[in-house]
From TrEMBL, chain A:
Keywords: Acyltransferase, Transferase. This is 1-acyl-sn-glycerol-3-phosphate acyltransferases. InterPro entries: Plipid/glycerol_acylTrfase (IPR002123). It comes from the Bacteria. Residues 34-155 form the Phospholipid/glycerol acyltransferase domain. One of its GO terms (molecular function) is 1-acylglycerol-3-phosphate O-acyltransferase activity. It comes from Aliicoccus persicus. One of its GO terms (biological process) is phosphatidic acid biosynthetic process. The lineage of its organism: Bacteria, Bacillati, Bacillota, Bacilli, Bacillales. The keyword Acyltransferase applies. PANTHER family: 1-ACYL-SN-GLYCEROL-3-PHOSPHATE ACYLTRANSFERASE. The keyword Transferase applies.
TrEMBL record, chain B:
GO terms for biological process: CDP-diacylglycerol biosynthetic process; peptidoglycan-based cell wall biogenesis. GO terms for cellular component: plasma membrane. PANTHER family: PHOSPHATIDATE CYTIDYLYLTRANSFERASE (PTHR43535). This is Phosphatidate cytidylyltransferase. GO terms for molecular function: phosphatidate cytidylyltransferase activity. It comes from Aliicoccus persicus. Belongs to the CDS family.
Amino acid sequence: MRRFLFSLIVRPLVLLVLGMNARHYERLPQEGPCVIVANHNSHLDTLVLMSLFRGKSFDQVRPVAASDYFLKNKFLAWFSTKVMNIIPIERKMTRDIKGLFAPMVDALDDGGIIIVFPEGSRGEAEKLSRYKSGVYYLMRERPDVPIVPVFLHGLGKALPKGSFFFIPIIVDIFIGNPFKFEEDKRAFMDALNTRMDELQQEGHFKEW
Amino acid sequence: MNLGIFSDDLMYVFVGIVAVLVIATIVTAVLKRRKPSDALHEVDLRIRSWWVMFIIFAIAIVLHSTISLIFMALLCFLALKEYFSLIPFNRAHRLVLFWAYLAIPIQFLFIYFEQYGMFIIFIPVYMFLLIPIQAIFVGDTKNFLQSIASVQWGMMLMVFGLSHLAFSLVLPGKENGLIGAGLVLYLVVLTQANDVAQFLWGKMLGKKKIVPKVSPNKTWAGFVGGLLTTTVLAVILAPLLTPFSILASIISGLYIALMGFIGDVNISALKRDLAIKDTSSIIPGHGGILDRVDSLTYTAPLFLHFTRFFYF
Protein backbone atom coordinates (compact mmCIF):
# COMPACT_ATOMS: atom_id res chain seq x y z
CA MET A 1 0.00 0.00 0.00
CA ARG A 2 2.77 2.38 0.98
CA ARG A 3 4.73 1.37 -2.09
CA PHE A 4 1.65 2.04 -4.21
CA LEU A 5 1.02 5.48 -2.69
CA PHE A 6 4.63 6.45 -3.17
CA SER A 7 4.69 5.23 -6.77
CA LEU A 8 1.46 7.06 -7.45
CA ILE A 9 2.19 10.42 -5.83
CA VAL A 10 5.87 10.93 -5.23
CA ARG A 11 7.86 8.97 -7.80
CA PRO A 12 6.27 10.45 -10.95
CA LEU A 13 6.71 13.96 -9.57
CA VAL A 14 10.33 13.33 -8.68
CA LEU A 15 11.06 11.90 -12.12
CA LEU A 16 9.19 14.52 -14.11
CA VAL A 17 9.82 17.80 -12.36
CA LEU A 18 13.24 16.92 -11.00
CA GLY A 19 14.78 13.98 -12.79
CA MET A 20 17.56 11.84 -11.39
CA ASN A 21 21.00 11.15 -12.77
CA ALA A 22 22.42 8.37 -10.59
CA ARG A 23 26.08 7.32 -10.92
CA HIS A 24 27.17 3.87 -9.66
CA TYR A 25 23.59 2.75 -9.21
CA GLU A 26 24.83 -0.83 -8.84
CA ARG A 27 26.37 0.10 -5.48
CA LEU A 28 22.96 0.80 -3.99
CA PRO A 29 22.10 -1.94 -1.46
CA GLN A 30 19.11 -4.04 -2.42
CA GLU A 31 18.38 -5.20 1.12
CA GLY A 32 18.91 -4.19 4.73
CA PRO A 33 20.22 -3.85 7.29
CA CYS A 34 22.14 -0.90 5.99
CA VAL A 35 22.64 2.80 6.71
CA ILE A 36 22.53 5.39 3.92
CA VAL A 37 24.46 8.52 4.81
CA ALA A 38 23.70 11.58 2.68
CA ASN A 39 24.26 15.32 2.61
CA HIS A 40 21.24 17.50 3.31
CA ASN A 41 20.27 20.53 1.23
CA SER A 42 16.54 20.43 0.92
CA HIS A 43 13.38 18.71 2.09
CA LEU A 44 13.34 16.94 -1.24
CA ASP A 45 16.52 14.99 -0.42
CA THR A 46 14.58 12.26 1.33
CA LEU A 47 12.01 11.89 -1.45
CA VAL A 48 14.74 11.61 -4.07
CA LEU A 49 16.72 9.05 -2.06
CA MET A 50 13.58 6.98 -1.51
CA SER A 51 12.77 7.09 -5.23
CA LEU A 52 16.05 5.28 -5.90
CA PHE A 53 14.64 2.16 -4.26
CA ARG A 54 12.19 0.02 -6.17
CA GLY A 55 10.18 -3.06 -5.41
CA LYS A 56 10.88 -5.00 -2.27
CA SER A 57 13.80 -2.92 -1.08
CA PHE A 58 11.53 0.13 -0.98
CA ASP A 59 9.52 -1.40 1.86
CA GLN A 60 12.62 -1.51 4.02
CA VAL A 61 13.55 2.16 3.58
CA ARG A 62 13.16 4.29 6.71
CA PRO A 63 14.31 7.91 6.71
CA VAL A 64 15.26 9.33 10.09
CA ALA A 65 13.56 12.70 10.64
CA ALA A 66 13.03 15.25 13.39
CA SER A 67 9.70 14.71 15.10
CA ASP A 68 9.26 18.37 16.09
CA TYR A 69 9.13 19.29 12.40
CA PHE A 70 7.65 16.33 10.58
CA LEU A 71 4.84 15.58 13.01
CA LYS A 72 3.86 19.18 13.58
CA ASN A 73 0.53 19.10 11.76
CA LYS A 74 -1.94 16.43 10.80
CA PHE A 75 -1.31 16.26 7.08
CA LEU A 76 2.48 16.29 7.43
CA ALA A 77 2.26 13.65 10.13
CA TRP A 78 0.07 11.43 7.92
CA PHE A 79 2.45 11.82 4.98
CA SER A 80 5.55 11.32 7.12
CA THR A 81 4.35 8.18 8.82
CA LYS A 82 2.07 6.57 6.22
CA VAL A 83 3.90 7.33 2.97
CA MET A 84 7.46 8.07 4.03
CA ASN A 85 7.50 5.71 7.01
CA ILE A 86 9.94 7.93 8.92
CA ILE A 87 11.65 7.08 12.17
CA PRO A 88 10.83 10.14 14.26
CA ILE A 89 13.54 11.31 16.65
CA GLU A 90 13.85 14.14 19.15
CA ARG A 91 16.33 16.84 18.23
CA LYS A 92 17.00 17.77 21.88
CA MET A 93 20.30 17.11 23.59
CA THR A 94 20.01 14.15 25.86
CA ARG A 95 22.16 11.99 28.09
CA ASP A 96 20.23 8.92 27.17
CA ILE A 97 22.04 8.16 23.90
CA LYS A 98 20.94 4.54 23.87
CA GLY A 99 17.29 5.59 24.27
CA LEU A 100 17.62 8.17 21.49
CA PHE A 101 18.97 5.62 19.05
CA ALA A 102 16.71 2.77 20.14
CA PRO A 103 14.12 3.19 17.32
CA MET A 104 16.84 3.25 14.67
CA VAL A 105 18.58 0.22 16.12
CA ASP A 106 15.25 -1.60 16.18
CA ALA A 107 14.70 -0.74 12.54
CA LEU A 108 18.16 -2.05 11.65
CA ASP A 109 17.46 -5.27 13.52
CA ASP A 110 14.31 -5.61 11.40
CA GLY A 111 16.48 -5.43 8.29
CA GLY A 112 15.72 -1.77 7.57
CA ILE A 113 17.53 0.53 5.16
CA ILE A 114 17.93 3.67 7.24
CA ILE A 115 18.54 7.10 5.73
CA VAL A 116 20.38 9.61 7.91
CA PHE A 117 21.63 13.12 7.27
CA PRO A 118 24.53 13.62 9.67
CA GLU A 119 24.83 17.30 8.80
CA GLY A 120 21.90 17.64 11.19
CA SER A 121 19.81 20.38 9.66
CA ARG A 122 19.67 21.35 5.98
CA GLY A 123 22.92 23.24 5.53
CA GLU A 124 23.65 26.24 3.43
CA ALA A 125 22.70 25.09 -0.05
CA GLU A 126 25.23 22.95 -1.91
CA LYS A 127 27.91 23.38 0.75
CA LEU A 128 29.00 20.35 2.74
CA SER A 129 29.05 21.19 6.42
CA ARG A 130 31.03 18.97 8.77
CA TYR A 131 29.16 15.87 9.80
CA LYS A 132 27.94 15.54 13.33
CA SER A 133 29.11 12.53 15.28
CA GLY A 134 25.61 11.14 15.93
CA VAL A 135 26.17 8.63 13.16
CA TYR A 136 29.25 7.37 15.05
CA TYR A 137 27.18 6.64 18.15
CA LEU A 138 24.47 5.00 16.07
CA MET A 139 26.94 2.74 14.30
CA ARG A 140 28.60 1.84 17.59
CA GLU A 141 25.37 0.10 18.52
CA ARG A 142 25.47 -2.07 15.37
CA PRO A 143 29.10 -2.06 14.15
CA ASP A 144 28.64 -4.75 11.52
CA VAL A 145 26.00 -2.93 9.50
CA PRO A 146 27.38 -1.52 6.21
CA ILE A 147 27.28 2.24 5.63
CA VAL A 148 26.69 3.58 2.12
CA PRO A 149 27.64 7.23 1.50
CA VAL A 150 25.49 9.09 -1.04
CA PHE A 151 26.19 12.57 -2.32
CA LEU A 152 23.32 14.61 -3.74
CA HIS A 153 23.73 17.69 -5.89
CA GLY A 154 21.10 19.98 -7.37
CA LEU A 155 18.38 20.10 -4.74
CA GLY A 156 19.93 23.14 -3.11
CA LYS A 157 19.16 24.85 -6.41
CA ALA A 158 15.68 23.36 -6.75
CA LEU A 159 14.31 24.18 -3.30
CA PRO A 160 16.87 25.60 -0.87
CA LYS A 161 16.12 26.28 2.78
CA GLY A 162 13.95 29.34 3.18
CA SER A 163 12.61 29.50 -0.37
CA PHE A 164 9.01 28.91 -1.43
CA PHE A 165 9.74 28.85 -5.14
CA PHE A 166 10.47 25.46 -6.54
CA ILE A 167 12.65 25.25 -9.63
CA PRO A 168 12.95 22.04 -11.67
CA ILE A 169 16.58 20.90 -11.72
CA ILE A 170 18.00 17.45 -12.41
CA VAL A 171 19.50 15.88 -9.30
CA ASP A 172 22.94 14.32 -9.57
CA ILE A 173 23.34 11.35 -7.26
CA PHE A 174 26.71 9.78 -6.51
CA ILE A 175 26.60 6.46 -4.68
CA GLY A 176 29.77 5.42 -2.86
CA ASN A 177 31.18 2.04 -1.86
CA PRO A 178 29.93 0.62 1.44
CA PHE A 179 32.22 0.83 4.48
CA LYS A 180 32.08 -0.26 8.12
CA PHE A 181 32.22 1.25 11.57
CA GLU A 182 35.55 1.70 13.31
CA GLU A 183 36.16 2.16 17.03
CA ASP A 184 38.34 5.28 16.78
CA LYS A 185 35.84 8.13 16.54
CA ARG A 186 38.22 10.58 14.88
CA ALA A 187 39.27 8.05 12.24
CA PHE A 188 35.64 7.09 11.57
CA MET A 189 34.46 10.67 11.08
CA ASP A 190 37.48 11.43 8.89
CA ALA A 191 36.75 8.40 6.75
CA LEU A 192 33.14 9.52 6.33
CA ASN A 193 34.17 13.05 5.39
CA THR A 194 36.79 11.84 2.92
CA ARG A 195 34.33 9.52 1.22
CA MET A 196 31.73 12.27 0.84
CA ASP A 197 34.33 14.73 -0.46
CA GLU A 198 35.50 12.20 -3.03
CA LEU A 199 31.95 11.65 -4.24
CA GLN A 200 31.43 15.39 -4.50
CA GLN A 201 34.58 15.80 -6.55
CA GLU A 202 33.40 13.22 -9.07
CA GLY A 203 30.89 15.76 -10.32
CA HIS A 204 33.03 18.76 -11.37
CA PHE A 205 30.18 21.08 -10.58
CA LYS A 206 30.33 24.73 -11.51
CA GLU A 207 29.90 27.34 -8.83
CA TRP A 208 26.28 28.26 -8.16
CA MET B 1 -9.26 13.34 -33.75
CA ASN B 2 -6.09 13.54 -35.76
CA LEU B 3 -6.66 10.01 -36.94
CA GLY B 4 -8.46 11.43 -39.95
CA ILE B 5 -5.16 12.70 -41.24
CA PHE B 6 -3.69 9.26 -41.08
CA SER B 7 -3.70 9.07 -44.85
CA ASP B 8 -2.00 6.50 -47.03
CA ASP B 9 0.91 8.88 -47.57
CA LEU B 10 1.60 9.23 -43.85
CA MET B 11 1.19 5.50 -43.53
CA TYR B 12 3.93 4.85 -46.12
CA VAL B 13 6.34 7.03 -44.18
CA PHE B 14 5.62 5.26 -40.90
CA VAL B 15 6.03 1.89 -42.56
CA GLY B 16 9.31 3.11 -44.05
CA ILE B 17 10.63 4.17 -40.64
CA VAL B 18 9.62 0.85 -39.08
CA ALA B 19 11.33 -0.99 -41.95
CA VAL B 20 14.58 0.95 -41.39
CA LEU B 21 14.45 0.25 -37.66
CA VAL B 22 13.75 -3.45 -38.21
CA ILE B 23 16.68 -3.74 -40.62
CA ALA B 24 18.97 -1.86 -38.20
CA THR B 25 17.88 -4.12 -35.34
CA ILE B 26 18.47 -7.32 -37.34
CA VAL B 27 21.86 -6.20 -38.69
CA THR B 28 23.08 -5.29 -35.20
CA ALA B 29 21.81 -8.55 -33.74
CA VAL B 30 23.60 -10.57 -36.44
CA LEU B 31 26.85 -8.62 -36.04
CA LYS B 32 26.60 -8.96 -32.29
CA ARG B 33 26.17 -12.71 -32.47
CA ARG B 34 29.17 -13.01 -34.78
CA LYS B 35 31.50 -10.77 -32.81
CA PRO B 36 30.21 -9.01 -29.67
CA SER B 37 31.90 -5.72 -28.73
CA ASP B 38 31.30 -2.67 -26.57
CA ALA B 39 30.72 -0.49 -29.60
CA LEU B 40 28.03 -2.83 -30.87
CA HIS B 41 26.39 -2.91 -27.47
CA GLU B 42 26.27 0.88 -27.62
CA VAL B 43 24.70 0.78 -31.09
CA ASP B 44 22.20 -1.78 -29.85
CA LEU B 45 21.19 0.50 -26.97
CA ARG B 46 20.82 3.39 -29.38
CA ILE B 47 18.56 1.47 -31.73
CA ARG B 48 16.39 0.32 -28.84
CA SER B 49 16.04 3.93 -27.75
CA TRP B 50 15.16 4.87 -31.34
CA TRP B 51 12.28 2.39 -31.18
CA VAL B 52 10.99 3.92 -27.96
CA MET B 53 11.37 7.48 -29.24
CA PHE B 54 9.70 6.59 -32.54
CA ILE B 55 6.72 4.97 -30.82
CA ILE B 56 6.22 7.85 -28.40
CA PHE B 57 6.59 10.40 -31.19
CA ALA B 58 4.26 8.55 -33.54
CA ILE B 59 1.56 8.30 -30.87
CA ALA B 60 1.96 11.97 -29.97
CA ILE B 61 1.69 13.06 -33.60
CA VAL B 62 -1.19 10.87 -34.69
CA LEU B 63 -3.54 10.70 -31.73
CA HIS B 64 -4.78 14.27 -31.36
CA SER B 65 -3.41 17.71 -32.09
CA THR B 66 -3.82 18.83 -28.46
CA ILE B 67 -1.88 15.78 -27.30
CA SER B 68 0.83 16.68 -29.81
CA LEU B 69 1.04 20.16 -28.30
CA ILE B 70 1.29 18.80 -24.75
CA PHE B 71 3.95 16.35 -25.85
CA MET B 72 6.01 19.10 -27.44
CA ALA B 73 5.60 21.39 -24.43
CA LEU B 74 6.93 18.52 -22.33
CA LEU B 75 9.86 18.13 -24.70
CA CYS B 76 10.69 21.85 -24.34
CA PHE B 77 10.44 21.52 -20.57
CA LEU B 78 12.76 18.49 -20.37
CA ALA B 79 15.33 20.10 -22.66
CA LEU B 80 15.24 23.38 -20.74
CA LYS B 81 15.54 21.53 -17.45
CA GLU B 82 18.65 19.73 -18.64
CA TYR B 83 20.14 23.00 -19.80
CA PHE B 84 19.38 24.79 -16.53
CA SER B 85 20.87 21.89 -14.58
CA LEU B 86 24.17 22.37 -16.39
CA ILE B 87 24.83 26.08 -16.53
CA PRO B 88 26.75 27.94 -13.85
CA PHE B 89 24.59 30.55 -12.25
CA ASN B 90 24.54 33.16 -9.53
CA ARG B 91 22.42 31.68 -6.77
CA ALA B 92 20.88 35.07 -6.01
CA HIS B 93 19.30 35.09 -9.49
CA ARG B 94 17.57 31.75 -8.95
CA LEU B 95 14.07 33.09 -9.55
CA VAL B 96 15.02 34.15 -13.06
CA LEU B 97 14.90 30.44 -13.90
CA PHE B 98 11.43 30.20 -12.39
CA TRP B 99 10.07 32.82 -14.79
CA ALA B 100 11.90 31.22 -17.68
CA TYR B 101 10.08 27.94 -17.05
CA LEU B 102 6.77 29.82 -17.02
CA ALA B 103 7.47 30.96 -20.57
CA ILE B 104 6.73 27.41 -21.80
CA PRO B 105 3.01 27.21 -20.96
CA ILE B 106 2.48 30.77 -22.16
CA GLN B 107 4.28 30.11 -25.44
CA PHE B 108 2.16 27.00 -26.01
CA LEU B 109 -1.06 28.86 -25.25
CA PHE B 110 -0.19 31.26 -28.06
CA ILE B 111 0.32 28.26 -30.30
CA TYR B 112 -2.94 26.66 -29.18
CA PHE B 113 -4.87 29.84 -30.00
CA GLU B 114 -2.88 30.26 -33.22
CA GLN B 115 -1.57 33.69 -32.28
CA TYR B 116 1.35 33.76 -34.69
CA GLY B 117 2.35 37.34 -33.85
CA MET B 118 2.62 36.72 -30.13
CA PHE B 119 4.18 33.32 -30.65
CA ILE B 120 6.97 34.87 -32.65
CA ILE B 121 7.76 37.84 -30.40
CA PHE B 122 6.84 36.61 -26.93
CA ILE B 123 10.27 35.17 -26.15
CA PRO B 124 12.67 37.42 -28.04
CA VAL B 125 10.83 40.61 -27.06
CA TYR B 126 8.82 40.16 -23.86
CA MET B 127 10.76 37.46 -22.04
CA PHE B 128 14.17 38.80 -23.01
CA LEU B 129 13.32 42.31 -21.88
CA LEU B 130 11.28 41.50 -18.79
CA ILE B 131 13.32 38.71 -17.29
CA PRO B 132 16.29 40.85 -16.20
CA ILE B 133 13.87 42.77 -13.94
CA GLN B 134 13.88 39.87 -11.49
CA ALA B 135 17.67 39.95 -11.21
CA ILE B 136 17.72 43.74 -10.99
CA PHE B 137 15.30 43.72 -8.08
CA VAL B 138 17.28 41.07 -6.27
CA GLY B 139 20.04 43.64 -6.52
CA ASP B 140 23.02 41.32 -6.81
CA THR B 141 25.00 42.37 -9.87
CA LYS B 142 27.66 39.70 -9.60
CA ASN B 143 27.57 37.73 -12.87
CA PHE B 144 24.40 39.60 -13.87
CA LEU B 145 25.29 39.50 -17.54
CA GLN B 146 26.21 35.84 -17.42
CA SER B 147 22.95 34.87 -15.68
CA ILE B 148 20.73 36.80 -18.04
CA ALA B 149 22.58 35.83 -21.21
CA SER B 150 22.65 32.13 -20.42
CA VAL B 151 18.95 32.05 -19.54
CA GLN B 152 18.09 33.90 -22.73
CA TRP B 153 20.16 31.57 -24.90
CA GLY B 154 18.48 28.60 -23.23
CA MET B 155 14.99 30.00 -23.83
CA MET B 156 15.90 30.81 -27.42
CA LEU B 157 16.97 27.25 -28.19
CA MET B 158 14.74 25.11 -26.01
CA VAL B 159 11.51 27.12 -25.88
CA PHE B 160 11.47 29.41 -28.90
CA GLY B 161 13.31 26.97 -31.18
CA LEU B 162 11.66 23.70 -30.23
CA SER B 163 8.17 25.19 -29.95
CA HIS B 164 8.30 25.78 -33.71
CA LEU B 165 7.70 22.05 -34.06
CA ALA B 166 4.35 22.65 -32.45
CA PHE B 167 3.53 25.69 -34.53
CA SER B 168 3.87 23.66 -37.72
CA LEU B 169 0.83 21.75 -36.48
CA VAL B 170 -1.40 24.81 -36.55
CA LEU B 171 -0.18 26.38 -39.76
CA PRO B 172 -2.97 27.70 -41.94
CA GLY B 173 -4.07 25.02 -44.33
CA LYS B 174 -4.26 22.45 -41.60
CA GLU B 175 -7.89 21.96 -42.60
CA ASN B 176 -6.53 19.98 -45.51
CA GLY B 177 -5.50 17.57 -42.81
CA LEU B 178 -2.09 16.37 -43.69
CA ILE B 179 -0.04 19.53 -43.82
CA GLY B 180 0.79 20.27 -40.16
CA ALA B 181 1.58 16.76 -39.00
CA GLY B 182 3.23 15.99 -42.34
CA LEU B 183 5.60 18.95 -42.03
CA VAL B 184 6.55 18.01 -38.46
CA LEU B 185 7.24 14.45 -39.52
CA TYR B 186 9.23 15.65 -42.54
CA LEU B 187 11.35 17.97 -40.42
CA VAL B 188 11.97 15.52 -37.59
CA VAL B 189 12.72 12.55 -39.84
CA LEU B 190 15.15 14.55 -41.99
CA THR B 191 16.88 16.12 -39.00
CA GLN B 192 17.36 12.80 -37.22
CA ALA B 193 18.28 10.97 -40.44
CA ASN B 194 20.91 13.63 -41.05
CA ASP B 195 22.43 12.97 -37.61
CA VAL B 196 22.54 9.23 -38.24
CA ALA B 197 23.83 9.58 -41.82
CA GLN B 198 26.57 11.97 -40.68
CA PHE B 199 27.59 9.45 -38.04
CA LEU B 200 27.63 6.49 -40.44
CA TRP B 201 29.45 8.27 -43.32
CA GLY B 202 31.91 9.69 -40.82
CA LYS B 203 32.62 6.23 -39.40
CA MET B 204 33.07 4.72 -42.86
CA LEU B 205 35.05 7.39 -44.70
CA GLY B 206 35.77 10.14 -42.20
CA LYS B 207 39.30 11.51 -42.03
CA LYS B 208 39.59 15.26 -42.02
CA LYS B 209 37.86 16.89 -39.07
CA ILE B 210 35.68 19.98 -39.52
CA VAL B 211 35.74 21.51 -36.05
CA PRO B 212 38.26 19.38 -34.10
CA LYS B 213 38.27 21.62 -31.06
CA VAL B 214 34.49 21.60 -30.67
CA SER B 215 33.49 18.11 -31.74
CA PRO B 216 36.31 15.71 -32.68
CA ASN B 217 33.86 13.17 -34.17
CA LYS B 218 32.62 15.46 -36.93
CA THR B 219 34.38 14.93 -40.25
CA TRP B 220 34.03 16.43 -43.72
CA ALA B 221 33.11 13.04 -45.16
CA GLY B 222 30.38 12.64 -42.55
CA PHE B 223 29.09 16.14 -43.19
CA VAL B 224 28.96 15.83 -46.98
CA GLY B 225 27.59 12.28 -46.81
CA GLY B 226 24.87 13.48 -44.43
CA LEU B 227 24.08 16.42 -46.68
CA LEU B 228 23.62 14.21 -49.75
CA THR B 229 21.70 11.46 -47.94
CA THR B 230 19.35 13.98 -46.34
CA THR B 231 18.73 15.74 -49.64
CA VAL B 232 17.89 12.48 -51.42
CA LEU B 233 15.55 11.57 -48.57
CA ALA B 234 14.01 15.05 -48.70
CA VAL B 235 13.16 14.61 -52.38
CA ILE B 236 11.66 11.17 -51.79
CA LEU B 237 9.54 12.22 -48.81
CA ALA B 238 8.39 15.61 -50.10
CA PRO B 239 5.44 14.42 -52.22
CA LEU B 240 4.18 12.26 -49.34
CA LEU B 241 4.38 14.85 -46.56
CA THR B 242 4.64 18.35 -47.99
CA PRO B 243 3.31 20.65 -50.70
CA PHE B 244 6.90 21.19 -51.97
CA SER B 245 8.08 21.20 -55.55
CA ILE B 246 11.23 19.24 -56.44
CA LEU B 247 13.37 22.38 -56.22
CA ALA B 248 11.93 23.34 -52.84
CA SER B 249 12.52 19.85 -51.50
CA ILE B 250 16.17 19.88 -52.63
CA ILE B 251 16.68 23.24 -50.96
CA SER B 252 14.99 22.13 -47.74
CA GLY B 253 17.10 18.96 -47.65
CA LEU B 254 20.32 20.97 -47.95
CA TYR B 255 19.03 23.57 -45.51
CA ILE B 256 18.01 21.04 -42.84
CA ALA B 257 21.31 19.14 -43.17
CA LEU B 258 23.41 22.31 -42.89
CA MET B 259 21.44 23.89 -40.03
CA GLY B 260 21.12 20.57 -38.21
CA PHE B 261 24.87 20.28 -38.27
CA ILE B 262 25.25 23.76 -36.81
CA GLY B 263 22.64 23.11 -34.12
CA ASP B 264 24.51 19.94 -33.21
CA VAL B 265 27.96 21.51 -32.87
CA ASN B 266 26.43 24.48 -31.09
CA ILE B 267 25.36 22.20 -28.23
CA SER B 268 28.73 20.41 -28.46
CA ALA B 269 30.53 23.72 -27.95
CA LEU B 270 28.32 24.47 -24.97
CA LYS B 271 29.06 21.05 -23.42
CA ARG B 272 32.78 21.41 -24.07
CA ASP B 273 32.76 24.79 -22.36
CA LEU B 274 31.12 23.22 -19.30
CA ALA B 275 33.40 20.14 -19.48
CA ILE B 276 30.63 17.54 -19.69
CA LYS B 277 30.03 14.67 -22.08
CA ASP B 278 26.31 13.93 -22.01
CA THR B 279 23.64 16.31 -20.83
CA SER B 280 21.95 13.58 -18.78
CA SER B 281 21.34 9.84 -18.97
CA ILE B 282 17.62 9.73 -19.68
CA ILE B 283 17.89 8.07 -23.14
CA PRO B 284 20.10 4.93 -23.00
CA GLY B 285 22.93 5.13 -25.56
CA HIS B 286 22.13 8.69 -26.58
CA GLY B 287 22.60 10.68 -23.37
CA GLY B 288 20.14 13.41 -22.53
CA ILE B 289 17.15 14.91 -24.30
CA LEU B 290 19.39 17.82 -25.20
CA ASP B 291 21.82 15.49 -26.98
CA ARG B 292 18.93 14.24 -29.13
CA VAL B 293 17.20 17.54 -29.91
CA ASP B 294 20.38 19.58 -30.42
CA SER B 295 19.97 19.72 -34.21
CA LEU B 296 16.23 20.40 -33.91
CA THR B 297 16.85 23.58 -31.90
CA TYR B 298 18.16 25.03 -35.16
CA THR B 299 16.24 23.19 -37.86
CA ALA B 300 12.76 23.63 -36.35
CA PRO B 301 12.62 27.46 -36.39
CA LEU B 302 14.68 27.88 -39.57
CA PHE B 303 12.74 25.29 -41.57
CA LEU B 304 9.34 26.52 -40.41
CA HIS B 305 10.08 30.08 -41.46
CA PHE B 306 11.44 28.88 -44.77
CA THR B 307 8.21 26.94 -45.38
CA ARG B 308 5.99 29.70 -44.14
CA PHE B 309 7.64 32.32 -46.33
CA PHE B 310 7.31 30.32 -49.53
CA TYR B 311 4.16 28.31 -48.98
CA PHE B 312 1.75 29.86 -46.46
